[in-house]
Amino acid sequence: MAGTLIMAVNEAEASLKHAIASRFGEPLPPVGEAEDVQLMLRKFRNACLVIMGTDVSMAKSQNVDQRLWLSHTRVYGKFKAEISKQHAAQQGNKSVAWRKSLADYLIFIKDSQSFYRSLLRSLSDKHPASEGLLKVANRLRSQAPLPARPERAIQHPDHIKTALDDICCETLVHLGDLSRWRTVIQPDAAAGGFRTATGYYDLASELYPQSGIPYHQLAVLTLANRNNFKALLYFYLSLTRQVPHPEAARNLSLLVKKLKGYTIANLANTLGPAGKSASIATLRAWFVRLHTEAFEGNDSIQRMEMEKEVITRVGMVLSSGADATSTLLSISLIAIAAEYLNFSESLGSNRSNDSFHRLNLRILVELLRYVADAVDNEFREDVTSGETRPAESRIPAIVKVILPPLRVHIIWFYQNSAKLTASMRQNIPDIETTGVVHEAFAKLTSVVNTLLANYPVYDTPAAPDSGHALQEEELISGFIPLANEHTTLVWQKERLVGSKDGKRVKSDKPEWFDHMVRIRDIITWAVRIACEENSPLALDNGRIAFKQSNQPFDLDTAPAAERPHSDVSALDGGTKAAAAATASAAIHMPTPAQMPTPVHDQAALATRTPLHTKAELNWGFTPPPMTHSAYRPQDTAYPTPNAPSGRQTVTTGGTTLADGFHGHWDSFNALRNKLPQKKQFWHTDKRPQLGKTEENTSNRR
């Protein structure tokens, strides 16, 4: 049976190749009479569908899905060349031959889209235990509902699950590519085609966040739409996944080289968000210019001045009141990814990593500074006026803009806490960086204590328990530089695309709810940093203290009568046992040696095909074959840098404090009782109620 199916696939593939050669004027192979390309392609699709529906693991082992897609890309390439040649020959006039080729091309695109959507629905019907296929099929259905599922679906073996996940992710990317290809010869429908393609790529990245393939295709799409800033972000997101796109490093280098030739004024014109503040465009321009210098390992006085200019521009954007959340979040992710990947190694320099490391520190300090000032001013006004509004309604607008990128940078700070501590105490790599590290620890201490004292974090659920994905969570899920045992648990919760019907979870909470979740999460990460061995931060009477040079930091910011008096000796109890329990429950994280890294071999780079030629950007790109076991979010171990040894775990009220901020109410209530009573705004009757305002449906991109 299997041999017969494979033979049918091989015969259909050979007939299709013969038909392509006949249709597009190639020398005919020694096979029978040529037939229509569309007809032969349909026969090949049907043969592949039969074998994938009968034995999906065998189909994967024979690369049936890849062979089918490569046939589509070959037909696409032939149509592209034919239409372009006819258009050039007629000097832009629409000849009869051009119209016929265009009609055939549109039939090819529509048939291909219909087939791949049907493939997903067919596989979902045959394999009801595949959650990924079920969600995708439900998202793609239009009129007729899918058949009812059995209450207890049969669980598939691992090799079948792997094959199904591979095919599902590949097919979503193919559908995105087909939508993108369709817009090439229909400029009037480009906007709709780009939205459709983005939707498929987004869905693939949501279901399979370990894959960098969808992000690379998003970069191609945004380049075609002349959005170089977003393309830069997507290339980095592709490279920092467990399965990076093999062309992402090459194409990122080409994009950086292209942007290097732009002046600041030109960059501002090409990088600015449409219809938004000019200050955001200028910030993007200066950041891209700084990134170009650091990317190549240039550590000059000019680059240092650029770094200061970028930080100044960040402050100007925040002071202007512009909605810069997306820009700041993109800058944070690019800088963190660039530090992690350290591309300058391939250029013979080791300074780029230090440059991006210092930039990340400066960005963090700047964000913390604005949060501290804004919160202090907000609550000082209430104290002066005697007004007691609910704390949740008193999150300053500038803080709302800062919280998503600040949360990302706090996780980065936790990831690098051991390195940062050593840097501060040993003046590594230089005194200037040491000073920035010292300031970052001090600012973090001040901000966390301010947030603890003014906001009801104890009445706010932890990020994993919030019931929906935060805006930034959808981008950082699977982001290797931020992968650790805490973030992995969040990413593995299937909250990004919704419940069993496959629809995205929409928040029914008011806007302030997400901001409160972020505030609590920022405090959580600070507590985890304080629990690290040799950390300069420490827990002190319900607050966080900063110890300089291993000496206790003088906490005299509050009057003695308002200082918490609870005994903190219990924080030292059960440390070893709790740490052992945490370690045993932690997910195994591979070492950096197991991580995907940029290609540094010049011979290998020379064999890669650049993507940034105008013709290729206009006509698209063929994604590479995908490997088995690449897209299984439920049991994937995310790689991460080595965690520092001897991580401390502090207990309060029978639970670990570090994890107490991660969903355990006892630890929060223990700290809650230690705060001054006049700061406990969560008891007010004026507190907004959940579900009483419009739902927060912020878009991902």
TrEMBL record:
Residues 64-184 form the Telomerase activating protein Est1-like N-terminal domain. InterPro entries: DNA/RNA-bd_Est1-type, Est1-like_N, Est1/Ebs1-like, TPR-like_helical_dom_sf. Residues 637-652 have a biased composition (Polar residues). It comes from the Eukaryota. It comes from Trichodelitschia bisporula. SUPFAM superfamilies: TPR-like. Residues 197-486 form the DNA/RNA-binding domain. Residues 682-701 have a biased composition (Basic and acidic residues). Residues 631-652, 677-701 are annotated as: Disordered. This is DNA/RNA-binding domain-containing protein.
